[in-house]
């Protein structure tokens, strides 16, 4: 029996079939969700620490599923990226954020997450320009958040797109900074206007002196390079205190506010 299972896919086939089927069903579901307009953007406040006022909001996608309720992005973004559906979903998110924050009477900044797939498989600059123009969102009101996954390919196309974003006057944030394989070289090669320190370090910095030193070093590094810093995942007054004392620019986290529908955010 042992010999049989070795080298035979049969034993694994039911599970494989199940996964493939589950994926297929989710993909169908995602396509119809796009059609039926079931995606929504929630917004989480980002607070400016020197003025104490609202600096802007980060747009975070949710899926308002007819039977499953509100589905978190962790449960559908990976497959959306795998299937390429994230291109349309990301285009929708840019437009929706621009629709919510555009117009003459609104100067509030909004940050939108962009997937590596959108860099490879769409004309991102064009999508951004269209969203800005269509809903009268000023370029300074928009920030694009990317993770280092975008930079791993490290080709001239990526650099061109990132420079194009900055040339529009749109902000560019490096998300989850410090997590993963962050290379300091990224900071010299690419035109970031902001670093977002991963919430892992904000969590660690209270109990661990080395994490605290790291956060402080990131802050001075960024300041020397002309970049702003947002601390992510701020949950306690102790963390906030320490970030204020360390001259962090902006904070975001459950302590300041949870992601909420546009109709609920206090503007
Ligand atoms: P992210 O871009 O790093 O977003 C921050 C995540 O941390 C959000 O989770 C947010 O709700 C959560 N968060 C905020 N404050 C706190 C806190 O104080 N403590 C803790 N524990 N968590 C906090 P969310 O909304 O579930 O999003 C998860 C990820 O899904 C995002 O991580 C981003 O990578 C991705 N995502 C969300 N919306 C979009 C989108 O429109 N496009 C793309 N490509 N990715 C998206
Ligand atoms: Ca405006
Ligand atoms: Ca983000
Ligand atoms: Ca993040």
Characterization of this structure:
- Residues 23-267 form the EAL domain.
- This is EAL domain-containing protein.
- It comes from Ahrensia kielensis.
- It is built from eleven helices and ten strands.
- It is of the alpha/beta class.
- The chain has an eight-stranded mixed barrel with strand order 1-2-4-5-6-7-8-9.
- Helix 4 packs parallel to helix 6.
- The chain is globular.
- The N and C termini lie far apart (66 Å).
- The structure holds ligand C2E and calcium ion (3 copies).
- One calcium ion is lined by residues 58, 113, 145, 175.
Secondary-structure blueprint of this entry?
Layout: H1 2-5, H2 13-35, E1 39-48, E2 54-65, E3 69-71, H3 77-83, H4 86-101, E4 109-113, H5 116-121, H6 124-135, E5 142-146, H7 156-167, E6 171-177, H8 184-189, E7 194-197, H9 199-204, H10 209-224, E8 228-231, H11 237-245, E9 250-251, E10 260-261
Parallel strand pairs: 2-4, 4-5, 5-6, 6-7, 7-8, 8-9
Antiparallel strand pairs: 1-2, 1-9, 1-10, 2-3
Helix pairs in contact: 4-6
Bound molecules: ligand C2E and calcium ion (3 copies).
Produce a short descriptive summary.
The protein is built from 11 helices and 10 strands.
Q: What integer is the average pLDDT?
A: 92
* Shape, per Cα inertia axes: globular
Bound molecules: ligand C2E, calcium ion
Helix content: 40-55%
- Give the number of DSSP strands: 10
Radius of gyration: 20 Å
Structural class, please?
alpha/beta
Strand order of the largest sheet: 1-2-4-5-6-7-8-9
Query: How can the largest sheet be summarized?
Result: 8 strands, mixed, barrel
In DSSP terms (H or I, runs of 4 or more residues), the helix count works out at 11
Provide the succession of SSEs. Answer: HHEEEHHEHHEHEHEHHEHEE
> Which stretches of 5+ consecutive residues score pLDDT under 50?
1-10
The proportion of strand residues reads 15-25%
């Amino acid at each position: 029996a042992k010999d049989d299972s070795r080298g035979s896919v049969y034993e694994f086939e039911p599970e494989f079939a199940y996964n493939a089927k589950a994926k297929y069903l989710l993909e169908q579901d995602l396509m119809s969700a796009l059609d039926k307009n079931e995606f929504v953007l929630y917004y989480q406040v980002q607070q400016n620490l020197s003025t104490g006022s609202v600096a802007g909001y980060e747009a975070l996608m949710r899926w308002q599923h007819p039977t499953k309720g509100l589905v978190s992005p962790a449960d559908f973004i990976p497959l959306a990226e795998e299937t390429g559906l994230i291109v349309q979903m990301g285009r929708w998110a840019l437009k929706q954020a621009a629709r919510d924050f555009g117009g003459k009477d609104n100067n509030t900044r909004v940050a939108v997450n962009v997937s590596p797939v959108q860099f490879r498989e769409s004309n991102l600059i064009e999508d951004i320009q269209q969203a800005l123009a269509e809903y009268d969102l000023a370029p300074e009101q928009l920030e694009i958040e990317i993770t280092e996954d975008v930079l791993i390919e490290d080709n001239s196309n990526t650099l061109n797109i990132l420079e194009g974003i900055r040339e529009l006057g749109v902000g560019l944030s490096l998300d989850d900074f410090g997590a993963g394989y962050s290379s300091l070289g990224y900071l010299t090669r690419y035109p970031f206007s902001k670093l977002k320190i991963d919430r892992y370090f904000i969590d660690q910095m209270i109990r661990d002196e080395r994490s605290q030193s790291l956060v402080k070093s990131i802050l001075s590094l960024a300041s020397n390079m002309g970049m702003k810093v947002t601390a992510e995942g701020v949950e306690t007054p102790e963390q906030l205190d320490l970030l204020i004392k360390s001259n962090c620019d902006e904070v975001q986290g459950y302590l300041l506010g949870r992601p909420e529908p546009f109709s609920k955010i206090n503007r």
